[in-house]
Amino acid sequence: MGAPAAPALATAPAAPASASASAPPAAAPAVPPVATLEPVPAAPAEPPGSSPRDEQPSGPAPATGAVAADAAALLASRPLIVPVAGVPPSALTDMFDDARGGRRHEAIDILAPTGTKVFAVDDGTVAKLFTSKPGGLTVYQFDPQGRLAYYYAHLDRYAEGLKEGMTLRRGDLVGYVGTSGNAGNTPHLHFAVFRLGPERRWWEGDPVNPYPALRQARPAG
């Protein structure tokens, strides 16, 4: 009897084909778009819109003590003239502390007929020509050292040729008395002085009472 036949060997199942070989390549995951940031606007060189304060420049609380005394002494050292033609120093009235709409006036009003000439009280530079709802047609003048600003408001019109950056001499014509802004029906010059900060912003500073210095000034003309 011959030897029994050897049992058939089991065939191992074929290995499955590689996924990479048979399946299409997977798509790369979508990258979410990067948000675009809006640029941060730079601080404005000057306030937008109208003047930040009712009639004159804004600033910190009114200076007191040594600061106020220093500002007053600085103003008193300037050789000023009364800014309105035909008005003697003796006709001026101190109204710096008077109430105006719930706040301190911080200026002097010099009454004169419409069209009366308004002169630069001191040497200096025209820092800004500005029109606002309260102040109307206004001029901001810096003194020669850039320490004080002189503010003329409610003008009827500017002097011909007046422009920002031009040099002024004491007694130069800057404009004419009027009723622009909130002056009502009474023509007058609203005149204010303020001590500038280190940034020398025409709209900002510490108010200084102009009355004592103007009482010692000489008349214009």
From TrEMBL:
Domain M23ase beta-sheet core stretches: 104-210
Region (Disordered): 1-65
SUPFAM superfamilies per the UniProt record, alphabetical: Duplicated hybrid motif
Record's keyword terms, sorted: Hydrolase, Metal-binding, Metalloprotease, Protease, Signal, Zinc
Any single GO BP term: proteolysis
InterPro entries assigned to the protein according to its UniProt record, in alphabetical order: Cell_wall_metabolism_enzyme, Dup_hybrid_motif, M23ase_b-sheet_dom
Compositionally biased residues, Low complexity: 1-25
Keyword Cell inner membrane: no
Tagged with keyword Isomerase: no
Gene Ontology molecular-function annotations: metal ion binding; metalloendopeptidase activity
UniProt-listed Pfam families: Peptidase_M23
Signal peptide (residue range): 1-19
Cross-referenced CDD domains: M23_peptidase (cd12797)
CC cofactor: Zn(2+)
Composition bias, Pro residues: 41-50
PANTHER family (UniProt xref): CELL DIVISION PROTEIN YTFB (PTHR21666:SF288), PEPTIDASE-RELATED (PTHR21666)
Name of the molecule in the record: M23 family metallopeptidase
Native source species: Ramlibacter lithotrophicus
